[in-house]
Amino acid sequence: ASFGGSVVGNNTGFLALLQNATITEWLDTLQTVRYTNLNNRATLFPVREIAVTVTDLSPLLSKTSNTATAYLTLQPVNDAPQLGFNGTDIYQTTFFEAIGAASLTTADLLVFDYDDDFIQSATVTITNVLDRTPFQVYEVLDANTTGTPITKQFFPDGYLELTGNATKAEYYSVLRTLTYDNSHPNPNPT
């Protein structure tokens, strides 16, 4: 059976289904009612009380049923933080030999997390380290963490680890200072 009536109050916290129907049609329709919460932030009141009543349309006198109550506990999930450059995941720049470190970000870098005000860490990786020997690291990533609770450590494998419980704004300010440098006398351009 399908519901051919009208819906009042959809997405408002109140829902009324208006239609003369058989009990079977109503039961089928009530089974399709769903609760959705699009808010990504954790809530102070995680239990939702959902009250359901039905009213018959008798020729003599309409009557409303008792209230059946469902309790719904919201269980938020931790959404991953997101990075981007003005709507894209890619930023491209050029490193010029013997001029110094190249900046790896722009002012349109975005750092956001829908459900948390703090970030724990960030990792920046050179995915194709080409200029190194067993005794010398030429390619280096760096960032300025001054004035933040964030600490940094660069590893010869080509990654920079930023750690520390800090606000999104603090991680944003540090990530805005990311640089790449290559001190090899003849850097591999591949």
Read across the widest sheet, the strand sequence of neighbours is 6-12-9
Q: Describe the global form.
A: rod-shaped
User: Roughly how much helix do the residues carry, as a percent range?
Assistant: under 10%
* Integer average pLDDT: 84
The total beta strand count reads 12
Q: Helix-strand pattern, N to C? A: EEHEEEEEEEEEHE
State the end-to-end CA separation: 65 Å
As a percent range, the share of strand residues is 25-35%
Cα-atom radius of gyration: 29 Å
Largest sheet: 3 strands, antiparallel
Work out the helix count. Answer: 2
Secondary-structure-derived class: mainly beta
- Low-confidence sequence ranges: none
SSE blueprint:
Blueprint: E1 6-8, E2 16-18, H1 23-30, E3 47-52, E4 68-73, E5 82-85, E6 102-103, E7 109-112, E8 118-125, E9 139-142, E10 151-155, E11 159-167, H2 168-175, E12 179-182
Antiparallel strand pairs: 1-2, 3-4, 5-7, 6-12, 8-11, 9-12, 10-11
Descriptive labels:
single chain; 190 residues; mainly beta; three-stranded antiparallel beta sheet; 2 helices; 12 strands; rod-shaped
Structure description:
The protein is built from 2 helices and 12 strands, in the order E-E-H-E-E-E-E-E-E-E-E-E-H-E. The chain is mainly β and 190 residues long. The strands form 5 sheets. Strands 6-12-9 form a 3-stranded antiparallel beta sheet, with no helix packed on it. Strands 8-11-10 form a 3-stranded antiparallel beta sheet. The protein has a two-stranded antiparallel sheet with strand order 1-2. The radius of gyration is 29 Å and the shape is rod-shaped. The termini are far apart. The model has no long low-confidence stretch (mean pLDDT 84).
